[in-house]
Write a structure and sequence with these properties.
Elements lengths: L3 E5 L4 H13 L3 E10 L4 E2 L6 H11 L3 E6 L4 H16 L3 E5 L6 H12 L4 E3 L7 H10 L3 E8 L14 H5 L14 E7 L9 E10 L18 E9 L5
Parallel strand pairs: 1-2, 1-5, 2-4, 5-6
Antiparallel strand pairs: 2-3, 7-8, 7-10, 9-10
Length: about 240
């Protein structure tokens, strides 16, 4: 019998590739996808993708979606709400949580330590793999994804809303990881082998969110690779009015 697991689902390319690999290997039974949602804005934390689009992803995949809601956005709230949800999942016989992280050591330790408190185990199928190889695999499997969040310390606003392709990867600045593993960018995956159907959406406006209060609506000119804020491309569900 396959052990039951939850897969942490951001809606982006790494979690999509991770899910594809887990399903192909058949070691774990994926009982749920798990997404963190900012309850105030109804969007995926950090990625800024609308909650309804992530629901459409889960429907197209055919795996139920669990949501951890946060309002304050601090670690204490996140850990408290996440633990409460996972304790319920553990009561259903689920002991494993799967993540698409690749090489951020401190994040892996953070996840493992939090799960160990409730006697659950973290699984990392993509861990320490070459990110150029991973993005090549992603594209060769005919996944499709667009940038929904861009770190202004690495990329300009023009990258928001772009679809990842081989040309896109080849044109990235040398300091940007091909998978954006250092937080350079985040994505929304809308088609690929894990989906029964593609997720229809349109590109909305691009909005800048600074890390600190600013007096201008424009992105500040900081030193290279110094994050001062993020560009978010609003992805609208099909039929939505801009």
């Amino acid at each position: 019998m396959q052990p039951k697991a939850i897969l942490c689902w951001s809606g982006g390319k790494d979690s999509a590739l991770c899910l594809h690999r887990v399903l192909e290997e058949g070691i774990y039974e994926i009982s749920y996808l798990l997404t963190t949602i900012n309850e105030t804005f109804g969007r995926v934390s950090m990625h800024g993708v609308r909650e309804c689009l992530v629901e459409q992803q889960a429907d197209a995949i055919g795996i139920p979606l669990l949501k951890v809601f946060v309002k304050e956005g601090n670690n204490e709230e996140y850990e408290r709400n996440m633990e409460a949800l996972l304790v319920q999942a553990k009561a259903e016989g689920i002991d494993h949580v799967i993540f698409g992280d690749i090489f951020l050591e401190d994040l892996r330790v953070y996840r493992e330590e939090n799960l160990s408190k409730i006697e659950m185990k973290a699984i990392f199928p993509l861990w320490k793999q070459d990110t150029r190889s991973l993005i090549d695999q992603f594209l060769s499997l005919q996944f499709r994804t667009v940038l929904c969040c861009v770190n202004d310390g690495f990329l300009s606003s023009e990258f928001a809303g772009k679809e990842i392709s081989k040309a896109f990867i080849n044109g990235l600045p040398p300091e940007v990881d091909p998978c954006g593993e250092n937080g350079e960018y985040h994505t929304f995956c809308f088609a690929g082998p894990i989906f029964k159907n593609s997720i229809p959406f349109t590109i909305g406006e691009t909005v800048y969110k600074a890390l600190h209060l600013k007096t201008s609506d424009d992105s500040p000119n900081g030193s290279p690779n110094q994050t001062q804020g993020f560009w978010y491309c609003d992805l609208l569900p099909a039929g939505a009015i801009h």
